[in-house]
Design a protein that fits this description.
Elements lengths: L2 H19 L3 H10 L4 E2 H8 L3 H13 L3 E6 L2 E6 L2 H17 L1 H10 L11 H9 L3 E5 L3 H6 L6 E2 L17 E6 L6 H11 L3 E8 H6 L13
Parallel strand pairs: 4-5, 4-6, 6-7
Antiparallel strand pairs: 1-3, 2-3
Length: 226
């Protein structure tokens, strides 16, 4: 084997480590959840419905490929994505699949776009609306994801609490709901609930990872939760 061949073999073996790590739908799901912020194994298992042992095994594969990093707090281990490059990689993978696989576009049209009565709010549109106090930004993700990072000024009302907390929202304001990203249904479901209740609502065309990658400020903590 020539030096060039040896180099190419070694290089493509390393590239393939990333491909192997994301070859599981469940590992892609875990990676997408970790794009929202740092999470413990128990929390990830609860959200995905997987056993803790299975969740931990998938996370170890992602860690071996250097896609996630860990932090230990006593006996607990917390996982996070290993930098913004991982966000970009995951979104590029999803967008490529949508562009090349008709089944992805069909699913997006059926489960997401078909529910939109109004045009979603673009990321670039939202900041001026917030500054002029023309909208209420509603974060419908779980509380722990909101605490890890959220759009400044957003109000935390997790989707499962929304119907019983509708009275906390101003009846005359336009509401922009957001969640985990462009392929997350939480905000679309929230808009359905809000619209049925007579409130003006649209979803954000993107989530916190896209907001962060666009260079917009991100707040943390639970200070904006009602």
């Amino acid at each position: 084997m020539t030096e060039r061949s040896a180099f190419e073999v070694q290089l493509y073996e390393q590239f393939a480590r990333i491909g192997k790590a994301v070859s599981s739908p469940r590992r892609l799901e875990l990676l997408d959840l970790l794009c929202q912020g740092e999470r413990g194994v128990d929390a990830l298992a609860s959200t995905t419905g997987m056993p803790v042992t299975t969740t931990s095994q998938h996370l170890q594969v992602l860690r071996a490929a250097r896609l996630v990093e860990t932090r230990r707090e006593g006996t607990r281990v917390f996982y996070r994505v290993a930098g913004e490059g991982v966000y970009e990689f995951l979104r590029s993978l999803q967008d490529l699949a949508r562009a090349r696989l008709a089944e992805v576009e069909q699913a997006v049209e059926t489960f997401l776009h078909a529910r939109d009565e109004l045009e979603p709010v673009r990321l670039a549109e939202l900041m001026p609306l917030v500054r002029r106090e023309e909208v209420v930004v509603l974060d419908v993700r779980p509380v722990d994801e909101f605490a890890s990072g959220h759009i400044p000024g957003a109000v935390s009302v997790p989707l499962e609490e929304l119907e019983r907390r509708l009275g906390e929202l101003p009846p005359d304001a336009e509401i922009v709901a957001y969640c985990r990203g462009p392929y997350c249904l939480l905000s679309a479901e929230a808009v359905d609930v809000l619209s049925r209740s007579g409130l003006r609502a649209r979803r954000l065309d993107g989530g916190l990872p896209e907001w962060r990658l666009a260079g917009y400020p991100v707040a943390s903590g639970a200070e904006d939760r009602r």
